[in-house]
Amino acid sequence: MHAMLPLLRATDFPPIRRGRLDTLQINLGYRCNQSCVHCHVAAGPDRTEQMSAATVDAVLGCLRRNRIATLDVTGGAPELHPRFRDLVVAARAMGTHVIDRCNLTVIEEPGQEDLPAFLAGQRVEVIASLPCYLEDNVDRQRGRGVFAASIRALHKLNALGYGSGRSGLALDLVYNPQGASLPPSQSALECAYRRELGKRFGIVFDRLYTLANMPIQRFGSTLVSKGTFAAYMALLKNACRSDNLERVMCRNLVSVDWQGFVYDCDFNQMLRLPLARPGKRRLHVSELDVASLAGNPIRVADHCYGCTAGQGSSCGGALAK
To answer: Residue 5 CA to chain centroid, in angstroms?
Structure first.
């Protein structure tokens, strides 16, 4: 895999500063039951990195100490971590809103058969990857049989009330392009997803989020190998909209890696660009003080154009209204 940071470090991306932090996003590890081409984490079945029990406890201590409103749990497939359910239960007991970034097919892994019921019982918001409503497109990007397994998982979640709009159990889907292009209009694509998934499978959901593919890790390395990296970066830069800068996720979120170190966002985490702390060592989640971050500069590089191009892109979908 190509090293991406040397290609991204020199940047003319405008400086931005942090606002009030309300979301702690944690990566429990890189183990996943899938190996997707677009994965900016380069997760897969053979990855062994995972958060230690002590670091999970430090995350809970951080939530308790700082009274952070939302815990956003990612991986890999975060549900495969042995402390995933303990973490969710403890965070919910504090009144913290919990988001599970789920690849859907993990529900069919051994020992995960009761995962939908667990998530529903804890009132966890599910943000689920489904990069298209067409089987061929999904299987080409994520592996043979993934689309069918995803549909079965969505039926199980729907049967528990997820996505109905009445139960309070939020089910959001995530789309990302097949290659080096920007996502289409989020609102228009959401209508197409509702129509096709509803008509063909009887599936309902709350929102669709469109995410741009970030030029880092597996996807960025693929661009370099194909000789299309420069063209994709030009596309992102030419489509940059300054009004998206006010709504990028790094203004009110920090990302914590599997070792407990803190970053401005998940993408900086993958590039090993920790929080800007001149003259100081890396910040660990056990030391995180939310109040001290307000107004601090956010570390940027050329990949940040992926969040501000076109309608914008973040872990919460498009930025432009």
So the answer is: 20
Write down the domain spans for the chain: 5-308
Instruction: Specify the pLDDT at position 137.
Output: 83
Per-residue pLDDT, 140: 79
Residue with tokens 């089910």: 171
Q: Name the phi and psi angles at 210, rounded to 5.
A: -105, 130
CATH number of the domain at 5-308, out of 3.30.1330.60, 3.40.920.10, 3.30.499.10, 3.20.20.70? 3.20.20.70
What angle (nearest 5°) sits at the alpha carbon of residue 268, between those of residues 96 and 208? 55
**How does pLDDT run across 276-314, given as a tens digit for each residue?**
776 678 999 999 999 999 999 999 999 999 999 999 988
Beta bridge partners of residue 129, listed in sequence order: 174
* Nearest to 193, CA basis, from 130, 127, 147: 130
The pLDDT of residue 316: 84
User: Which portions of the chain are predicted below pLDDT 50?
Assistant: none
pLDDT at 75: 87
Pair 22, 293: CB distance under 8 Å:
no
Following DSSP, what letter does each residue of 125-191 receive, concatenated? EEEEE---SSHHHHHHHH-TTHHHHHHHHHHHHHHTTTTSSSSS--EEEEE--SSSS----HHHHHH
